[in-house]
UniProtKB/TrEMBL annotation:
Name of protein: Glycolipid 2-alpha-mannosyltransferase 2
Entry annotation: catalytic residues: 284
GO terms for MF: alpha-1,2-mannosyltransferase activity
Organism of provenance: Hypsizygus marmoreus (White beech mushroom)
Pfam hit, one: Glyco_transf_15
Keywords, alphabetical: Signal, Transferase
Length: 386
């Protein structure tokens, strides 16, 4: 065999070996390079979603969508933004986007929350962006800090293991504080208590389409409790025992499990094993009465008592998602195809050409995450079609 041929075989062998190792050890790489993912990419991710569209009755007449206070009916709702003072530029970007694409014509208020007092710079830079009420709240230490009853030696060992396994935020206590706060405390804050509905917005997110309807009113009128734009798989190593505890809770409290729920989206075998699908909670519009209700209150308190937020790295996304899937009916969960949304590195762009044009969307439909190999949207479509 010629020398060049031997070198070519050697290089191919190395590439194939690396691909195999990464496929086995890195969940996201394995899914992204799976046959299903590659087939989808070759087809341009062309499978069209079949969402429940927002009826035309909810749209503001053309020409009025950007008029100040163009509507005369609003829900008891607010935007909730968790941010640090160092996030000011990202917060400005997010507020500017949501004002331009939606809130200029609705005037919904904002609640900003921080574990430290907001700086005058932060408050002044975001306040000039909207005529809506903006309130700035301090998170109580007992809602944010790691509880004293957590075994710190055990928690530290868990963090060190995740750092060694190169898991994102694996060594961060503050990230765990945030996940626990978003799971069980943000809706209890005094500034948020007076509202029923919230739209979670994070610093440095983008809204790519005009939102010519009111998502809060649509959800309120149609008995929805939770909505999303992106769904994906969770990192299994961050929630090793979460599903075990979910199953225990359901056995202890069968009265909280809703009939016709969305368990089938989360599990393909009747609840025995979790398929890791969840709604990406950096975008969510939801009913806080659902979180404040007896089912979710008991659920969060049970999960919190296990210490899993700190011994592992339980995120608020799987916690919220699993709760919505179990305690609500499946028709109470809504996918907003119309809302073009980006949180780096993922984008949801409306797949319907008519919806994309109607929203004057700036996103590239071909780059929408919906049917990427790491997305769970196919599972959602299949589940909702029955």
């Amino acid at each position: 065999m010629q020398t060049w041929a031997r070198y070519l075989l050697l290089v191919l062998g190395i590439v194939i070996s690396l691909h195999f190792i990464l496929s086995v050890t890195q969940e996201d790489y394995g899914r992204a390079t799976s046959l299903a993912s590659l087939t989808s990419q070759l087809k341009g991710g062309s499978k069209q979603p079949s969402p429940q569209p927002v009826p035309d009755d909810y749209y503001i007449p053309t020409g009025e969508a950007n008029s100040t206070l163009a509507v005369d009916r609003r829900a008891n709702a607010t935007f909730v933004i968790l941010a640090r003072n160092s996030d000011v530029s990202g917060a400005v970007r997010s507020v500017r986007d949501i004002e331009d694409r939606f809130n200029r014509g609705h005037g919904y208020p904002y609640v900003f929350l921080n574990e430290e007092p907001f700086s005058e710079e932060f408050k002044s830079r975001v306040s000039v962006l909207s005529g809506s009420l903006m309130e700035f709240g301090l998170i109580p230490p007992d809602h944010w800090n790691q509880p004293d009853w957590i075994d710190e030696d055990k928690a530290r060992a868990g963090r060190e293991k995740m750092v060694a396994d190169k898991i994102i935020y694996g060594g961060s206590v503050s990230y765990r504080n945030m996940c626990r706060f978003n799971s069980g405390f943000f809706f209890r804050h005094p500034l948020v208590q007076k509202y029923r509905w919230y739209w979670r917005i994070e610093p440095e997110v983008h809204f790519h389409c005009d939102i010519g309807f009111d998502p809060f009113l649509f959800m309120e009128d149609n008995n929805k409790v939770y909505s999303f734009t992106i769904t994906m798989y969770e990192f299994e190593k961050t929630i090793s025992t979460l599903w075990e505890h979910v199953r225990k809770f359901m056995k202890m409290h069968p009265e909280y499990v809703a009939e016709d729920n969305a368990m089938g989206f989360m599990s393909h075998d009747g609840g025995n094993k979790y398929n890791l699908c969840h709604f990406w909670s950096n975008f969510e519009i939801a009913d806080m009465d659902f979180w404040r209700g007896p089912a979710y209150t008991a659920f969060f308190e049970y999960l919190d008592s296990t210490g899993g937020f700190y011994y592992e790295r339980w995120g608020d996304a799987p916690v919220h998602s699993i709760a919505a899937a179990i305690f609500a009916k499946k028709d109470q969960i809504h996918f907003f195809d119309e809302i073009g949304y980006e949180h780096n590195p993922y984008i949801h762009c409306p797949q319907s050409k008519d919806t994309w044009k109607r929203g004057r969307c700036s996103c590239d439909q071909a780059k929408s995450f919906d049917y990427d190999g790491y997305s769970c949207m196919r599972h959602w479509d299949k589940f909702m079609k029955g």
